[in-house]
Amino acid sequence: MRVYNFSAGPAMLPLEVLERAKDELLDWQGGGMSVMEVSHRGKPFVECAASAEAALREVMSIPEGYKCLFLQGGAYGEFAAIPLNLSAAGQSVDFINTGDWSTKAIAEAKKYVTANVIADEKASNFSRVPAQGSYQVSKDAAYLHYTPNETIRGVEFDYVPETGGIPLIGDMSSTILSRPVDVSKFGLIFAGAQKNMGPSGLVVVIVREDLLGKARTECPSVWDFTQQAAADSMLNTPPTFSWYLLGLVLDWVKANGGLEGMAKRNKAKADALYGYIDGSGFYTNPVEKNARSWMNVPFLVANPELEKPFVSEAAKAGLTNLAGHRSVGGMRASIYNAMPLEGVQALIDFMKDFAAKNG
Amino acid sequence: MRVYNFSAGPAMLPLEVLERAKDELLDWQGGGMSVMEVSHRGKPFVECAASAEAALREVMSIPEGYKCLFLQGGAYGEFAAIPLNLSAAGQSVDFINTGDWSTKAIAEAKKYVTANVIADEKASNFSRVPAQGSYQVSKDAAYLHYTPNETIRGVEFDYVPETGGIPLIGDMSSTILSRPVDVSKFGLIFAGAQKNMGPSGLVVVIVREDLLGKARTECPSVWDFTQQAAADSMLNTPPTFSWYLLGLVLDWVKANGGLEGMAKRNKAKADALYGYIDGSGFYTNPVEKNARSWMNVPFLVANPELEKPFVSEAAKAGLTNLAGHRSVGGMRASIYNAMPLEGVQALIDFMKDFAAKNG
Q: How many Å apart are CA B190 and CA A122, to the nearest integer?
């Protein structure tokens, strides 16, 4: 029996995607080999990779003038790779700090640049986003880095920051493909695959071409965006299975209405869950309403001793991985694209029962 | 129909491993989720990861005092990560150059260190290895880096270099798990997984603990061996599916006689193939006999116009990916652990027929 898996990542994948991967795991495209076994430089995989890229461009409406890269090292690796590619030694970089992942990105960037935190929501205990225009982007910044969705505390921007021409960098690991986005507002978007795109081990980088060609000499070659762009992300062996799975996920997104379809589906799930939490009198969500994430929904109960029973009883009911991140406690339901509305409704039903028994 | 796949990597995997992965792809360990969907920090995956590490330690007889790391970025990434972890700025590093991968490692290291090539087989067109004792390891070198097996030209060391106490680094991407190795002679061993260990996207690093703690401040955190060792390789989300598959591959190695069993199997395959080539009067292998690889067997025909027909006719006969590397041409049969002796015999039969028709 398949469960409803609320894991924050690696996370639930569409059942249709897993079924197709299973069907062709021993014999892909009739070639007598698994997709895991074929050379990344052979025609079948090169076409598979190109097709996934074309689907990504179509689904996200990526304009001309952007390169899509399929790399290794995760979003955390990009926290180093981005300053090494887009800034010169001694240059400064702006950050907006809205939670744990922005904080880690800032710490990593400080190895390579001067990091200016131009807006910091730490004082609000990361329960909101700064308002558009409430901060000033530095005129000499190499770029502005922000985190459109913070996975751990469930804080999501409801706007794209204006930068006055400074390149905008978005860490979209936990929000990519969840709704339409105007890529042209960004200098670079990156995302670890393991939430909305496929299995872990792949990080997607979408970068405006005029930002290429600036890698520092000490940038590792496999993370040099310019070299990888020139090599179609095959300077070295890419994570072929994850790339293939991404293609299947994108086919599923297309078959389900594209990003408009995903947005509709995700808004319905989020509205249902937040609506129930707010009216429950038992559960609370600490995030300001305009900044509530569609993807990661943390919630608390008044008595923390009920957290463990909640998580273990939910798991017995087929609702798994509902513990909050170890750094913040509480509960968290990650409801990425692959989670159907039925899963969220099953969760709400369970929450109602649990509240009735323990209220 | 499954084919005999002679790809240099990603490469053939044991059929039993693929069948097991397929069986449990939708429901792993009865948890109602794919192994791709579970949190890397949940108990089931943490146990799976630890079990793969324990199997690696058992199979390779890794002594106490070594850490095993499961990272991203491939062996090419390690060409940067190793100098960043094991050398100070301004320090020098020794290299033995026996082919394309040593050459790339040297070029990448030069971003971070002074690279001394203490033995260079370029003049021999990379057709042999330097004899033990024919080169002098620098007394002040941070380490000596060499490539026990060169995948492209099929050159393999028949000994482990003596270094007089300088840490020895071995890029074992295409030879790891193919035969027993005395790990205690090495400071660090690394290997991309996609030849003998599983799918691409995972690189294994086995490092002596006294070499930890020396990472430069500019070393990216996800490649900092010390941080990753402290975090059991989960500083960030690891490539979970590749790690899981590695565990299945190691179970298969254990069930097939461990590294002694692999060595017996691999020697039989290599002896059969080189024996046929040398006696054929039609095919040639350019590598000196003591340095011939057990894993990658390049071969030539006198008339290069026969190369394309050879490769395409072989593919029709179910013997795939026999083209030589694009940088050197010719043919190459990669016969990693997963290739059975029957596959090599089928190749030899085909080669005989082809020679008879074209000789």
A: 40
The number of angstroms, rounded, from the C-alpha of A150 to the middle of its chain's C-alpha atoms is: 9
Name the helix (H) or strand (E) containing A169. Answer: strand A168-171
pTM above 0.90, yes or no: yes
Q: What is the pLDDT of residues B314-337, one digit of tens each?
A: 999 999 999 999 889 999 999 999
- The string of pLDDT tens digits covering residues A38-83 is 999 999 999 999 999 999 999 999 999 999 999 999 999 999 999 9
Chain A's closest residue to B222, CA to CA, is A77
Omega prior to A10 cis, within 30 of 0: yes
Q: Is the minimum CB–CB distance between A238 and chain B shorter than 8 Å?
A: yes
**What gap in Å lies between CA A24 and CA A118, rounded to an integer?**
49
- As beta bridge partners, residue A93 has A115
- Nearest residue to A155 via CA among A290, A347, A331, A12: A290
B242, containing H or E segment: helix B240-255
DSSP state of A302: S
Q: What is the DSSP letter of B325?
A: P
pLDDT tens-place string over residues A135-147? 999 999 999 999 9
Domains of chain B: 15-255 (3.40.640.10), 257-358 (3.90.1150.10)
Residue of B nearest to A39 (CA): B10
